[in-house]
Design goal:
6 strands, Alpha-Beta Plaits, alpha+beta
């Protein structure tokens, strides 16, 4: 089954070029290596900050766009992984290894097979 691991961070997480950034990236490289060693197929990408987001809504046939994320929140989606796992426990274990889980959160959600 495929699972999406949605990484949420806030403004306190390390920023590119700032303190702790190189350690964080090394942690993500190690995370990828651990998934490979366990035979867990995966893909993932980081996302730019919420200030780069545009939200689209269609209401009564009219398309509305708003700069910024869907809702005001202190945490924002900063990246994701899609894993092919045998069971939820395997996906939860992988989520616990994501470096950002130490200061943010990781939402684990099964992908609906259509």
């Amino acid at each position: 089954m495929r699972y999406m691991l949605i990484i949420h961070n806030d403004e306190t997480h390390p920023q590119p070029g700032g303190p702790g950034w190189d350690d964080l990236m090394a942690g993500y490289a190690e995370f990828g290596s651990q998934l490979d060693a366990r035979g867990v197929a995966h893909t993932g990408d980081p996302l730019n900050g919420p200030e780069t987001a545009t939200t689209v809504r269609v209401r009564n046939g009219e398309t509305l766009t708003v700069d910024g994320p869907f809702a005001e929140t202190k945490e924002w989606m900063s990246g994701y992984y899609i894993l092919e796992c045998e069971a939820l426990d395997q996906a939860l274990n992988a989520a616990s290894m994501i470096p950002s889980a130490k200061f943010g959160s990781v939402e684990v959600r099964p992908i609906a097979e259509m």
